[in-house]
Amino acid sequence: MRQFDLAPLYRNTVGFDRLFSMLDQMVGVDAAPSYPPYNIERTGENAYRISIAVAGFTDRDLTVEVKENTLSVRGERKPSEERKVDVLHQGIAARSFDRRFQLADGVQVVGAALENGLLHLDLVRETPEAKKPKLIPISTNAAQTIEAQKAA
Question: Is the peptide bond before 36 cis (omega within 30 degrees of 0)?
Fold first, then answer.
């Protein structure tokens, strides 16, 4: 029997933890593009951080956009006219990229910072008030409960 790896789905989504745990036993998907490399970390109960390795890119070369439930990070390095050199060996990748992440409902991007060649994107999962659990008081007298509902 053929084994499937859902690791690419884990890497490209944030906030779907339980969904992909269930799908992990089912059908798999081909490997996602690997450039640029990145980490997804859980920094709190409802907080996440995506760190993308963007060595050689400046904040002017990067674009971060959220549209609907898709987070897009684009990098396009613009040639520098002030520094003309002949590159004898280029081991540092400077190619353009477009990395997309599917965000779960309620996940918001709250910040972005570029430091030491890493672009850090901070995300928070906010549960709407209507979806939060609420306690229902239990009455021992059904007549009192009906009266209280009519009064409200």
Answer: yes
Model's pTM, two decimal places? 0.62
Q: CA geometry: angle at 90 spanning 121 and 59, to 5°?
A: 25
pLDDT digits (tens, 9 = 90+) for 69-96: 889 999 998 766 666 778 788 777 778 8
Helix/strand/coil (H/E/C) assignment for every residue in the chain: CCCCCCHHHHHCEECCHHHHHHHCCCCCCCCCCCCCCEEEEEEECCEEEEEEECCCCCCCCEEEEEECCEEEEEECCCCCCCCCCCCCCCCCCCCCEEEEEEECCCEEEEEEEEECCEEEEEEEECCCHHHCCCCCCCCCCHHHHHHHHHHC
Q: Which amino acid is at 137?
A: P
CA atoms of 103 and 71, how far apart (whole Å): 7
Label the pairing between strands 62-67 and 70-75: antiparallel
Question: Can you tell me the distance from the alpha carbon of 69 to that of 106, in angstroms, rounded to the nearest whole number?
Answer: 9
Distance of alpha carbon 101 from alpha carbon 74, whole angstroms: 12
